[in-house]
Amino acid sequence: MDSCDVLRECTVRGLAVHADALQMMKEYVQNSISQNPLHALIDAIVMRLDHRAIRVVNLTIVSEALRDLSTAKLSATTPSLECIDAWLTPQLTYDFTTKTFGLERGRIASVSPKRYKSSTPPLHGSAITRADMFRMRHELSWQRVTRSTLLTHRHISESLSELSRLDSLQGVVAGVRRCVIGSLLQIENSIYLEDSHAVVKLDTSHAKTFGGFFGEGMVVIAEGSIDSDGVLVVDTLGHPPSESRAAAYCAIGGRQLNVFLGDYCERDITHDAPWIIIANCHLDSPATLPRIRSLLVGLALPMCQHYHNARKRSDGNSSPKRPVIVFLGDFSSSTSAHRGTSVIDGHQRRFGELGTFLCAPELNIGQESVVSLVDLVFIPGPHDPVAGASEALPRARLLQQVVQPLIDRLKAKTDGTAPIFTTSPARFRYGRDEEIVIHRDDTLRKLRQLSRHVTIDVNSSELFDASVHLAKTLLDQCHLAPFTSAFAPKHWNYDHALQLYPPPSILCLGDNTAPSFETVYNDATVFNPGNFTCEGSFVLFRPSTSNIEISEIL
Prior knowledge:
By secondary structure, this protein is α/β, with parallel strands linked by helices. The chain has a domain of about 80 residues: Helicase, Ruva Protein, domain 3 (Orthogonal Bundle). Helices cover about 30% and strands about 20% of the residues. The strands form 6 sheets. The protein has a 6-stranded mixed sheet, with helices on one face. The protein is globular and about 75 Å long.
C-alpha cells in the first residue's frame, strides 16, 4: 500500500493529512502484521479528533493514535459472546458538510466487561427526531442509489431518464419522463411519493415491478411520465438496489465504522462453537420441554462435551469455546396483550420450570451442568411481557420479574453467569468481524397486509416464494420495519437500530407467519428457524463456516 492509498482512505473519512504524518502512517501499515491496520489507525485518529472543528492530522496526532492502538492491543480480550442490543446500537450518520459518514457513539454490552460510553438518548423522541429519522433514511438511500452501477450505466427501464429528486418535477410539461426516488405515502385512497423537498401524486395501476413487497413508508424508485394533471404515471417501480457488505463498508470508510465501534478482535475462528436457534418456544405447550430435552441430549450435550474435553487437553490456556443457544419468543401461546397479575405469575412459573429443567442432573457433564458450558440468549416476541409496549420496535427485553425465577435457578448451577436477556433486534459479532442480526417479529404478515393498499401490476407467480421477496424487501430497504409508523409503531430515537446498513453477514428472522427457510441475497444469508413448538424446527449455525442447517425434532 502506497501513500496514495493511505491518503485516499483518509479523504473518505474527511481528514486532511500533513506529509510527515502521511509517511508515518504508510510505514506503520507496511510493517504491521495485523488485519486492516489502516482502518484501525484511521479510527484511532478520528477518536482523537472527535471534538475538534478542524480535522487536520499532524505527526503528533498519528503518534498518539499509535500509542492508543498499542495500549488497546495489550488490554484486548476476546469475549465468549459479544452482543449489542437496540438501545446501545450507535447510529450511522452522513455529514452534509464534509460529505463523510460517521457514528454517533453509544455503549456496548457484552458477556465480558467492556468500556461504556455516553448515556443513551430518551425512549420517546420529539417531532424533530421524527423528521430527522426520515431525512437521514432518505439521505442514506440516496447515497446508496447514486453509487449503484445499475442506475449509473442503465436505468430501471431502457429509457433515457435520469435519476433525480422530486423537486425536479416542478414545472415539468406533460409527457416528460422522469426517474425519481422517495417514500410511498397514502392519503385517503391515493398514493403519493414524498421526500424532504416535494410531494407528487402517483398512478401505479400499471406499474411493473422487480419483486419484493411495496407499501406505505418504503423508499422506492419510480419511473414514468407526467400527465396533464401533474400526476406521475408510473411504468416501473422498484426498490433501491442493495449493496453487499464489503461494498457498503468500502463506501462509508472501512469496517471500523461498525456497530461495535471499531473494536476489531484478532480471533481464532477455526473452532468457534456452533449456535442453536429456536423460535416460538411456547413454554405453556406440553410439547416444548420434551423437544428441548431431545435437542439438549442429542445435540447440545455432545457439543459441550467436545469443547469441555478440548479445554481440558489445553490445560485451560485456550479461550473458552461455548456453544450458544438462542431462544426467540413468543414464550407463551397466548396472544393477549393483557398483563395482569395472573399473566405475569404464569410467565414466572413457566420460566421457573424451564430453569429447573435446564439444571436437571441428567444434563450434567461430570460435575458441571450444561448451563455452565453454554451461553443462553433470550429475545422476546411480539406478545411477550417486556418493559414498555411489545408492539413498538425496537422491542425491549423481557421483564426482570418474569425471568427472575429462571435466573435464580441457573445461578445455583453456574459461577454466577446469568443468561443474556436482550432486545429485538439484537446484533452479535462472530468470526473475523462478521455480524449476525437476530429479530423476532411477524414481518411477512405486515408486509402482505400493507402491500394490499398499493395497486401495482404484479404477476401472481412473482410472489410464489414469499421468503425470497421478504429477504429482498428488507435488504433493499436496509430496514427491518420499512413500513409506516402508523402501521407498526417505532421508537423514533432508536429507528437506527432497525437499519440494515451496512448489511449484516447473516440475518435471522424469527417470523411465525413465514415457513422455515434459508436464502442468500447479495452475499447476505437470510433464514427463519420456523416454529419450534408446532413443527419442532430449529437452526444449527456454524460460525466457522457460516453454514446454516435447518432441522426438525419429530
